[in-house]
Design a protein that fits this description.
The protein is built from four helices and four strands, in the order βαβαββαα. Strands 2-1-3-4 form a four-stranded parallel sheet, with helices on one face. The protein is of the alpha/beta class. Strand 1, helix 1 and strand 2 form a beta-alpha-beta unit. The termini are close together. It has a single domain, classed as Response regulator (Rossmann fold, 3-Layer(aba) Sandwich), CATH 3.40.50. Pfam families: PTS_IIB (PF02302). It comes from Enterococcus hulanensis. Keywords: Sugar transport, Transferase, Transport. InterPro entries: PTS_EIIB-like_sf, PTS_EIIB_2, PTS_EIIB_2/3. This is PTS sugar transporter subunit IIB.
Length: 97
Amino acid sequence: MEKKNILVVCGNGAATSTMVLQTLKEMFDEKGVRVELAQKKVQEVNELIKDDYYDMVVSTSGTDFVNPHSIPVFSGVPLLTGLGKEQMLDDVLAALK
């Protein structure tokens, strides 16, 4: 599988997105999946996804932003709470294939 680019966002681009990014990094490393993870503010999503660089967005601040390219968008909340974490990770892996 070619390297995938994933955008991880939260309200300020610092706290919860850092926790989610770390969890994703560990999971991808464990599974041998090549990814590039970037961390930004949720307010920057529309601008960042318009050039088709990112293959996926994981957000802890909602998922109802404009998505003109219909790339997969996942809530990162399960990675913070643990509720539904394994299913969410399975869904993320499936979406990257």
